[in-house]
Backbone:
């Protein structure tokens, strides 16, 4: 043995394996840099689509209640006949924007920004979420993550994933619970 510190039982391939795992391609480096923002945008898209999916049945129930309680030519009925199709179209558009944002498309990102501005009217939780969503949606990282170049990077690096910590699951559950509480207290 030339060197007393050398382990005679160590595999000579260990250094080669470590060296190949340490070298990342430029696509992998870019994906690791933006993957958390990607996950955040997908979560925002899910929240926007979920809010519309919750609002749509409420609108339908309100429409049934309005039709049940008013005459055909009353002011309530005319207001309903005017605004109900608009509200349904907004719900469909919001669901489409949320699902498109989950696919990291650019045009739905802009529509999601519009809906985030509308959310700000629902003080206090909607205002906070709307401001946060706008900051995320309008950031330069979002512009890149929703680009065709980043779509190519995602296709080239499908092995890169983000694990959600239990703390983030708890915070997400708390936010959904607060949203549900505010929704039910708003309807009273």
Residues:
């Amino acid at each position: 043995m030339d060197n007393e510190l050398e382990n005679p039982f160590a595999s000579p391939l260990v250094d080669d394996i470590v060296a190949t795992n340490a070298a990342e391609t430029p696509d992998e480096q870019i994906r690791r840099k933006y993957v958390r923002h990607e996950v955040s945008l997908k979560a925002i898209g899910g929240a926007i689509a979920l809010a519309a999916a919750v609002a749509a049945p409420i609108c339908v129930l309100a429409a049934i209640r309005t039709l049940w309680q008013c005459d055909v030519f009353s002011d309530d009925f005319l207001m309903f006949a005017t605004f109900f199709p608009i509200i349904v179209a907004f719900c469909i558009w919001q669901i489409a924007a949320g699902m498109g944002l989950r696919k990291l498309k650019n045009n739905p990102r802009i529509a999601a920004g519009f809906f985030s501005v509308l959310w700000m009217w629902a003080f206090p939780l909607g205002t906070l979420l709307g401001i946060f969503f706008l900051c995320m949606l309008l950031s330069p990282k979002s512009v890149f993550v929703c680009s065709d170049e980043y779509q190519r990077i995602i296709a080239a690096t499908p092995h890169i994933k983000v694990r959600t910590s239990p703390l983030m699951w708890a915070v997400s559950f708390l936010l959904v619970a607060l949203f549900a509480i505010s929704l039910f207290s708003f309807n009273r």
In short: Residues 26 and 153 are 9 Å apart (CA to CA). DSSP finds eight helices and no strands in the chain. The radius of gyration is 25 Å.
